[in-house]
Design goal:
Elements lengths: L15 H12 L23 H5 L23 H17 L3 H15 L5 E2 L3 H4 L6 E2 L17 H4 L2 H12 L10 H9 L11 H11 L6 E4 L2 E4 L35 E4 L5 E3 L4 E8 L22 E7 L3 E8 L10 E2 L4 E4 L10 E7 L9 E2 L1 H6 L10
Parallel strand pairs: 1-2
Antiparallel strand pairs: 3-4, 5-12, 6-11, 7-8, 7-10, 8-9, 9-12, 12-13
Length: about 400
């Protein structure tokens, strides 16, 4: 199978103005919700293991969180913040909420309070209770910046209580495990900055992995958390899924194909291709071949050039995924918001191709050019959505 070079337009990084127009809120720095912008966090000592190291460990079995023991360190947060994260996860575990919920809850608290139990200068009683900072957002309190309808002042200043109230509302959101994190969090929180939660999904997943045995890499199958099985529409707690089920053939930048910026996954013509994560469609069109022809409705051949019918999707964190050689025009259009696992097209052999397969790429830093490309195999494995025959 031969996945070809995309046309000249594919090799350009996204301009800053385009990024701003498609995911402005996602790429902003921490917003002012709940006084978050006032805090500049750092690691606060302790000899616990580094969270980034733990987050890279294998998956499972999912372990209960010990909120009183030694916890890993993260450069983004101090000890108190990591312990609050542990409380949020532990409450989710005790309630039987699937691990996707822990990621959503963490990302929400990261946005609302930077994982600090905030008192409020306009609620004097809160200042006499244990707290880790002072906010000034209306009468909001605690990790999730909850207002009086969520409970008493003392209750809203109790991390375990606020986490429980968040989960109780979360599980009532329709299809919450499959919808974009920012959409679900917004339905629970009703924030003035609804797109801001998504930017925390990556770090929230790493914290869940580190504290709960790789739990962000699991999917719920028959009521059980199963590691590294996110495909066929199953979404890992990290928010990612394999675009198709199939064996990886040609790999990323091999000795024979050093300019091959993705991997080729074999599958029958017509196999449905799914979005690997929630995001916004950047491109959905026919890529011109080496002669400038837009002839994507017929099978291609080696040396023809071009990606055929293809789609690029921008995800939170500045990640871009690319899906090439579709058999017919994609089912999505530019600027469309897609959910993880949503069908975006079908496997084909258009463009620079010798047979039906999906050419799949992952790019970092919002860079659609070859400079931004990274190996999809370890990237997807770390998110619980491994590509088959990837080892």
């Amino acid at each position: 199978m031969t996945a070809g070079r995309a046309g000249r337009a594919l090799r350009r990084p996204i301009r800053a103005g385009v990024i701003a127009s498609v995911l402005t809120s996602v790429l902003l720095l921490l917003c002012c919700t709940g006084g978050t912008a006032a805090f500049f966090l750092s690691g606060l000592g302790g000899d616990a293991e580094n969270g980034d190291t733990l987050a890279g460990w294998g998956c499972g079995p999912v372990r209960p969180v010990d909120i009183t023991g030694e916890l890993p360190r993260f450069t983004e947060y101090g000890d108190a913040q990591v312990r609050n994260a542990a409380i949020i996860i532990k409450v989710g575990q005790d309630l039987g909420v699937p691990s996707r919920g822990w990621v959503i809850a963490l990302a929400t608290a990261m946005q609302e309070s930077a994982l600090r139990n905030l008192a409020n200068s306009d609620v004097p009683e809160s200042l006499s209770l244990p707290h880790e900072g002072v906010g000034a957002d209306h009468d909001s309190l605690g990790l999730f910046q909850q207002r009086p309808g969520w409970g008493s002042i003392a209750e809203r200043m109790t991390p375990a209580y606020t986490a429980r109230k968040f989960y109780e509302k979360l599980v009532k959101v329709h299809s919450w495990q499959h919808r974009p994190l920012t959409v679900v969090a917004q339905q629970v929180q009703v924030s003035a900055y609804p797109d801001a939660y998504a930017k925390h999904e990556e770090l929230a997943s790493k914290i869940v992995d580190a504290l709960a045995g790789g739990a962000a890499r699991t999917v719920q199958i028959n009521g059980k958390a199963v590691c590294d099985a996110a495909e066929r529409g199953q979404i890992a707690a990290s928010g990612w899924t394999a675009p198709i089920s199939g064996d990886v053939g040609s790999g990323f930048r091999t000795a024979d194909r050093p300019s091959h910026n993705g991997v080729d996954i074999g599958a029958a013509k017509g196999t449905e291709i799914r979005a690997a994560a929630a995001g916004r469609v950047l491109v959905a069109r026919c890529d011109p071949d080496n002669k400038g022809r837009r002839s994507c409705d017929v099978d291609g051949y080696p040396g023809k050039g071009g990606c055929g019918w293809f789609v690029d999707i921008l995800h939170a964190g500045g990640y871009i995924t690319r899906y090439c050689h579709m058999v017919v025009q994609p089912r999505v259009s530019p600027d469309q918001i897609v959910s993880a696992g949503q069908v975006i097209g079908q496997v084909g052999s258009s463009g620079n191709s010798s047979g039906p397969h999906l050419h799949f790429e992952v790019h970092l830093r919002s860079d659609r050019s070859s400079r931004g490309a990274t190996d999809p195999i370890p990237f997807m494995r770390e998110r619980g959505a491994p590509l088959r025959a990837a080892e």
